[in-house]
Amino acid sequence: MHDALRNAGRGIWRHKLVALAGTLALLGVPGLMAAHGAAAAAKPPAVHARQEIDGRRVTGSLRLTATAYGPSAEDNYPYGATDYYGQPLVAGDVAVDPSVIPLGSWLWITGYSFTPYLPAGGFLAHAVDEGGAIQGTRVDIYLDQPGSVVGRFGIQNVQAYVLQ
Fold this sequence. Notes:
By secondary structure, the chain is of the alpha+beta class. The chain has helices at 2-6, 13-27, 32-35, 73-76, 147-153, and strands spanning 52-53, 56-69, 93-96, 106-110, 123-129, 138-142, 156-163.
C-alpha cells in the first residue's frame, strides 16, 4: 500500500478510493457515498475499534484542524521538501504533533473540501512529518502543488480515523 500511495501523484487517488469503497461504505465515512453517486450520510457514524479501513483496524478517531503545505522553501525551510526521516515528501504525507498522533501512524482523513487536489471522500495519510506550528489536534497535509494552490486550502476541520 505504501508504494501505491507514493504513486498518488500519478493518478491513483481515484483507483484507491474505488478499491476502498466497500470497506468505507460499511463505516459510512462522510462523503464516500456522494463520491459513488448515492446520498452522503448527514452525520458521521461512531467508529468502533473492530472496524477496518484498507485492512487496518480503526483504533480511534479525532477531529483535527487541517492546513496544507507544499514543496516550496517557504513551507520547508531549512530542510527542503523532506519528511522527518529525511525522505522526499509525497502525496498522502502529513505532519502531526507526535504527542497526539505518533509518527509512522496511518490515518484515513475525510471531511475536507479541496478537490481535485485531494480525492473526494477521503484519503489514506501517513504521519511522517512534524512542524513547529503543528501542535495539538492539528494536521498539515502535504500537497505537491505550487504555493498558489496550497494557499487556497486554508484552514479546515477534518475527521481523521487512526489506523493500526
